[in-house]
């Protein structure tokens, strides 16, 4: 089963004040950190963003098909893209009936790990559900989830019907929800799904990253 990676970088960063994707933690921007994480577990990486943005990124950028329509528009853009890739590949191999996945991540989660994403993608490949999504504190994390291309029609129908709330649209496709018992072992310090939404959040994340780098350096001495 193929898993394609997508960085969702189309948000307005209104509360943050500047473009979160370009916020630097350590020696990398959040866009770089997220893209490299995806590259470690996915066949390829694509950025979903407003038209014309991130032209110098090391991965291809596709324009959000529904700019201004919130995260659901970006998710649908990724699903259309992965479906187009799948259709092109199936013309070469008509016997292939697999359903590729899009691992979709927002670029404001600085403490996600490769180990957790590998667990998530392995779970998706083994699942019969169309969406595999963690639940944290009673809320789903759709921008840290695996979406099968087979979910696109149901999500598109919800969108075309006026729905813009991701958690509601997801109910139209089969879901496997990963609860705390599934992901807790990957969350060693309670920050795995932590979102960087404001400038204060950024400063906190920067301090944590600096402390981690400092501890790693001291251990290496």
Listing every helix as H and every strand as E from the N terminus to the C terminus, the arrangement reads EEEHEEHEHEEEHHEHH
The CATH superfamily is Spore Coat Polysaccharide Biosynthesis Protein SpsA, Chain A
Helix segment count?
7
CATH domain topology: Spore Coat Polysaccharide Biosynthesis Protein SpsA, Chain A
Number of individual domains: 1
Helix content: 25-40%
Biggest beta sheet summary: 8 strands, mixed
Shape from CA axes? globular
Beta-strand proportion: 15-25%
Report the mean per-residue pLDDT as an integer: 92
Description:
Strands 1, 4, 5, 6, 7, 8, 9 and 10 form an eight-stranded mixed beta sheet that branches. By secondary structure, the chain is of the alpha/beta class. It has one domain (3-220): Alpha-Beta Complex (Spore Coat Polysaccharide Biosynthesis Protein SpsA, Chain A), CATH 3.90.550.10. It contains seven helices and ten strands. It has helices at 30-39, 71-90, 114-126, 152-160, 166-169, 180-183, 199-220; strands at 3-8, 24-25, 28-29, 45-49, 61-63, 101-106, 131-136, 139-140, 144-148, 175-178. 37% of the residues are buried. The longest helix has 22 residues, at 199-220. The mean pLDDT is 92.
Question: What features would you highlight for this structure?
Answer:
10 strands, alpha/beta, two-stranded antiparallel sheet, 7 helices
List the helices and strands and how they pair.
Layout: E1 3-8, E2 24-25, E3 28-29, H1 30-39, E4 45-49, E5 61-63, H2 71-90, E6 101-106, H3 114-126, E7 131-136, E8 139-140, E9 144-148, H4 152-160, H5 166-169, E10 175-178, H6 180-183, H7 199-220
Helix pairs in contact: 2-4
């Amino acid at each position: 089963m193929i898993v394609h990676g997508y960085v969702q970088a189309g948000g307005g960063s209104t509360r943050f004040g500047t473009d979160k994707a370009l916020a630097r933690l350590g020696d990398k921007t959040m866009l770089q950190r997220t893209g490299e994480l995806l590259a470690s577990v996915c066949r390829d990486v694509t950025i979903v963003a407003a038209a014309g943005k991130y032209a110098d990124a090391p991965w291809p950028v596709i324009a959000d098909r529904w700019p201004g329509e919130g995260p659901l528009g970006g998710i649908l853009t990724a699903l259309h893209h992965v479906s187009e890739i799948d259709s092109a590949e199936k013309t070469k191999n008509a016997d292939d009936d697999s359903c590729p996945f899009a691992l979709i991540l927002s670029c404001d989660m600085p403490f996600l790990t490769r180990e957790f994403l590998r667990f998530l993608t392995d779970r998706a490949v083994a699942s019969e559900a169309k969406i595999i999504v963690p639940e944290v504190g009673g809320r789903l994390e759709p921008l840290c989830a695996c979406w099968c291309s087979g979910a696109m029609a149901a999500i598109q129908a919800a969108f075309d019907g006026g729905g813009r709330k991701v958690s509601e649209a997801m109910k139209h496709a089969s879901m496997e929800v990963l609860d705390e018992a599934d992901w807790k072992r990957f969350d060693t310090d309670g920050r795995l799904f932590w979102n960087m939404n404001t400038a204060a959040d950024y400063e906190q994340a920067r301090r944590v990253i600096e402390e981690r780098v400092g501890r790693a350096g001291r251990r290496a001495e």
